[in-house]
């Protein structure tokens, strides 16, 4: 996939927006960016679409703003002139896809059948919109549809909610989910951007699913680590298990056999997707120890340490 599509996958959520008033475009973009979702698909369902795209991209050039519900080539042309970085269509329209590919414009056409996907592949596309996701069979249908097409990624849209989003994002074939649940039309119309920011933050946290994994204790030797782990076992019944570098007491306490990162030790935080979590934190200005990264057998990021310590503890993300 190209760099823009990789950024969309990194963000993981694409808000689908229906703006009736372009004056709300800039504060809405601000709310989404501050809420951790610097991306939006502004639909051609109203006459304010083009002007909204223009205002969003001018105010927040770092934001990935695209045009959605594009059903005519002329709409794609207007959107790109306004600053849209990508085009999304509800179905597979060869005229729109052909125009975009000829002009090197990122296009994400709607696909809901093997025929649609194969057409997309013929144009060299590697990301398509699975639409309407829930009505077309949901996660079960997407699994079946994506099975024969290795390398194709999907952006399910249509019926996606905060509750079912994680079921889609668990699939390796899913690059991102599109939906309006973090910026519902009624809140946009009211201009309640404080609530939209809070809903965006909640959606990101739900997607990443942070939770405490374990606490690491730095000791000076294997004997000291065994003693520390043994005390947790005798007091709380956390059974000891040893590996090359440490001794665990249950899954909660890790006693290091020699001092490791962190003045006092380390704290591990589990997440649904380490790669997306790293992207999220980097956009917020956090740095990571690249040398600490470990990878899973499929090549995806499995764990990595923040560069900054918290209260004398090194902190690292680990894959659930």
From TrEMBL:
Pfam families tied to this protein: Aldolase
Enzyme superclass (EC): lyase
Reactions accelerated catalytically: 2-dehydro-3-deoxy-6-phospho-D-gluconate = D-glyceraldehyde 3-phosphate + pyruvate
Domain called VOC: residue spans: 211-320
UniProt-recorded Gene Ontology molecular function terms: 2-dehydro-3-deoxy-phosphogluconate aldolase activity
InterPro entries: Aldlse_KDPG_KHG (IPR000887), Aldolase_TIM (IPR013785), Glyas_Bleomycin-R_OHBP_Dase (IPR029068), KDPG/KHG_AS_1 (IPR031337), KDPG/KHG_AS_2 (IPR031338), VOC_core (IPR037523)
Pathways per UniProt: Carbohydrate acid metabolism; 2-dehydro-3-deoxy-D-gluconate degradation; D-glyceraldehyde 3-phosphate and pyruvate from 2-dehydro-3-deoxy-D-gluconate: step 2/2
Keywords: Carbohydrate metabolism, Lyase, Schiff base
Superkingdom, taxonomy of origin: Bacteria
Known EC number: 4.1.2.14
Subunit structure: Homotrimer.
Family, per entry: Belongs to the KHG/KDPG aldolase family.
NCBIfam families found in the cross-reference section: eda, PRK05718.1
Protein name per the record: 2-dehydro-3-deoxy-phosphogluconate aldolase
Organism name: Anaerostipes rhamnosivorans
